[in-house]
Specification:
Blueprint (H helix, E strand, L loop, with lengths): L1 E5 L6 H10 L4 E4 L11 H15 L4 E3 L3 H7 L12 H8 L4 H4 L5 E4 L4 E4 L17 H16 L37 E4 L9 E5 L5 E5 L13 E3 L6 E6 L2 E7 L6 E5 L1
Parallel strand pairs: 1-2, 2-3, 5-6, 6-9
Antiparallel strand pairs: 1-10, 4-5, 7-8, 7-9, 10-11, 11-12
Length: 265
Amino acid sequence: MRYLIISDIHTHHDTAQRIIDSVPHDVVVCLGDFFDDFGDTARNNEDTAIWLKDKLAQANFVACWGNHDISYWCPNRATWCSGFGDGKQAAVSSVLGPADWAKFRPFYYIQEGNWLLSNAGVNRYAFGNPACPLNVEDIGQACKEGLYATSLGQYHPVFQAGWDRGGVNRYGGITWQSFETLIPLDEFRQVVGHTPSWPQPQVRFFGKGGNIRQQSVGNFHGWGNHPEIVVDIDTHNRHYAVIEDGKISIHSFNIDLHEQKQTGE
């Protein structure tokens, strides 16, 4: 299977479609944050919702929740985030209904290569006892409980911001975790978006002595030696990832020229 991974569209669905059209794939995984952009309008978000509704009807398209999506799915005090607007909410809701939102996922797991894909990343501190190992089933159950609580307007650590984003928890949840404070997991490799990384995607991993290190993908050469790496591909759609046969490659995409280059494993 060949997985195409795109992060943080933020109403630029036309660019996402150009990537989808130009990259051979079996499955497309979008890491959330489809809505809201600086200087956007209700129409921009409505157009994105129309594009997204069509994609959600396709069996090989996966949409992960982002904080900028949950706020439009269920606007309340626990889901608000910057960029949200009543006019935009009305526009998005005129297109996407409960059946569409039900197709969103908190994360997507690729067993081959042990890759966990999400909007902002899994930090064990948001998922209960940090001393306990994590598995896909427990993460899924915690996300299910967190979404239910969030839909009721209750604050839940799995879907809330951390201190660095104005939240009450030390670390953010799966749609709010900042990359700079994301602690790699021994249990999974991860691909995330959410935190803009410029000009290149970034990799976090454990270096010598157990210290967390961060490098750009162009300088990182430990793909086969670090089972715990986390890759942030959010460069405003100037990069995307491909996972094939369990191995990842990071590609650049020239938005104006459609030129593509590759780095990674």
